[in-house]
Amino acid sequence: MALFTVAAPPLHAEEAAPAAVPPADAPGDTVIVTGTAGKRSKVKASFSITTIGEETLRMQAPTSVTEALKSVPGFWVESSGGEASGNIRARGIPVDGFGSVTLLEDGVPVQHDPSLGYLNADQAFRLDETIDRIEVVRGGPSSVFYTNAPAGAINFLSREIGDHPNGLVKVTIGDYGLRRTDFWYATPLKDGWGVGIGGFYREDNGIRDPGYKADKGGQLRLKLTREIDHGRITIDAKHLDDKVALFLSVPMRTYADGEIRAVPGFDGNYGTVAGPETEHVQMKMGNGQLYDFNNDDGTHVRRNQLTFNLEKDLGGDWKLNESLRYSKTETQRNGVFANQLLSTDAFLKQSAALLSYVPGASKLALQYSSKPGTNFTPDNGLLIVGGLRGVTLPLEEAVNDTRLSRKFVLGDQSHDVTFGYYYAHFNQAFSRYSSSVLLGAQSQAPLIDLVGTDASGKVLGSVTDHGIYNYGYESENANGTSKTNAVYLADEWQLTPQLRLDGGLRWEEVNTSGRTERQANVNLGTFATSKIRTGTGVFDYYDHTFNKTGWTLGANYQLTKDAGVFGRWTKAFRLPNLSSYITSPTATPVIQTMDLGEVGYKYASRMLELYPTVFYSKYNNVSYTNNVFNLDNTQSSTTTGYASTRTWGTEIEGKLRPVEWGDLGFNITWQDPQYRDLAYTDKVNNLPVQRNYSGNQLIRVPKVSYRLVPGLNLMGDALRLQLSYEYEGARFVDSANSVRLPSYKVLNFSARYSITPTLTAYAYVDNINNSQGLTEGNPRAGELASADAGANTFLARPVLGRSVRGALKYDF
């Protein structure tokens, strides 16, 4: 959070009035408030930072948090899962979700720990027109100013209220049933008060259509400000109630021409395994009750958030910034997971022993569950073993950040000193229940039953229960509490007009305590109910405390007012969290530490912005967990351990404006991400086998990626046309580098036309080339050494198919 401000300065009258042409994001230098003790010129910052302004956001029109970050070099982002539950890997650090970066709103964590196992921070945050801009710090001081931010901090800054009444309404439609309305209205009131209200509501069928509403809901924000003597108070309240679909792996195949596309009968651009037959299923539980699995909910988040901020000049050059956020979030996260892909012949062969569950039967067969008596003989010959997984995650949290600062002038030098105290407390519960099902390998997959027949083909009974292969292959019940205390100190020391040193350190301590219910298998008499995992009523308790100190030291030398060079070294860390224990109370996690270095050059003028950076990341004690789905016991066999990684890389970010009517934005990342010390003992036929993957490329992280954005400004800037070309280099599914994900490219188009001074139209075409580029393989086949190695047919998740949207915005 910024020390003296949490958002942009109030708009002046001429800025608040609607313009004939929507203003482009200002060229040249930019003032930033993230990762610094106060306001700082971007070109004078001693760390890497990307700024994404209002008009850039509108032209990109991202549908998710991760989509919004595609213009950040050094970040590999994956948004193929839908509007929430994305993945970010920063500067080669192989941590899923938001495990290496933190998500901030107006400088305060959206969620103290942004990666709480099935509870990523992006699930609790939605982009709408109440957001003004984004600032993204890559490495550098993020780990000193913010918690759980070793590789970066992503700060979404909300709109200011302004000096005059202002507002907008934007209506968006799309070719996948999208109907969305955003709005914002703000006005100053009497006696120094100001009020703003905004939010959105939308419905759509999903680009991958499950046969019912995929996304439905919205949020409402109320913002109050009060100017006080030498300061300001801000109160911000938000309510979110939103359902978004979780898109998962689909069946893919490598064809004779070497290209990877979906298997015959499955639409790789728009298909999803989830469908009407798995939308609502009553799953039997070991205690005799029913679990109501409702995939219409998808990831359903109900969240109330209240934020208080005080900025106060205390006199004598002392300044106080106090931020408090309370949130209560109820999350239900349902999904239809594709766990295994088999040929029907292979499945029937390996299931031969189950014939005994149907007395008198002489052979096994597959039939449609919804069409008894109709044999399942798919053209592609494939069957999916799926998982219906429901996870319930209530979270109540309070975070507080108090900062006291003063500027000291000593002769020709000055020090901007900041002292901060951070506190976070949250309670989390965790329950999970899953059942395995048989599904056809086709879009909106049907449920399939394994039946026993006599010699003539007459069905004598069913092994499965309306498509359910085994109830309760997963079951968990746990809850815990986390308390964090941190103190930090930062100093920005201006030695000469050209040279500044920035340093800081952070000490942090976390206590996690809670309990996890032991699970056991029960047998209720049928095959489908023969191995139900259920709670025993016996709990394992844990209570652990960890602490660590990290530091950063950087320098910036200003060559001219438009150009500078910088360097920085950071020792960062990430403490264990509740996810370390929530299902494994006897686990012994370690503190993860990182060594991060960067050297860069910054130049900003009206014609050219250029920010090249060389970076180094060493991640020590990164944990890996290898889960391999096993149909025999309907549970995942797990291998857990620790390794380290090392990445060298170069980032180039910038924008070229050679003429008034044209420009080119670009960000390029080259890196060499490698494992270090990744060795373990495997078992093959009950014999120990040594595995060593040191030197292999990190999973999912490409060596080369880039994004080029050429744009044209026509008709006196009333019309803007923009194309983005995104390239992702080859990656690997597993640490063994045995399954390769090929490189892919995606083209997107957007346009803006100013119809009148107050009315603006936007058009978007995403994934013009209908790429089926794979963002990930099948994690349930193992991420150490994938079980899909050598297979030409497998499960993987491609990018979302082509979609078209149009929007109309009215400013007033």
Automatic annotation (TrEMBL):
Location, primary (coarse class): membrane
Location within or outside the cell: Cell outer membrane
Database matches in Gene3D superfamilies: TonB-dependent receptor, beta-barrel domain (2.40.170.20), TonB-dependent receptor, plug domain (2.170.130.10)
Pfam families with a match to the protein in the record: Plug, TonB_dep_Rec_b-barrel
UniProt keywords, alphabetically: Cell outer membrane, Ion transport, Iron, Iron transport, Membrane, Receptor, Signal, TonB box, Transmembrane, Transmembrane beta strand, Transport
GO CC list: cell outer membrane
Membrane topology recorded in Swiss-Prot or TrEMBL: Multi-pass membrane protein
GO molecular function: siderophore uptake transmembrane transporter activity
Domain TonB-dependent receptor plug: residue ranges: 43-153
The family this protein is said to belong to: Belongs to the TonB-dependent receptor family.
PANTHER family the UniProt entry points to: CATECHOLATE SIDEROPHORE RECEPTOR FIU (PTHR32552:SF89), FERRICHROME IRON RECEPTOR-RELATED (PTHR32552)
Name of the featured protein: Cyclic nucleotide-binding protein
Source organism of the structure: Duganella callida
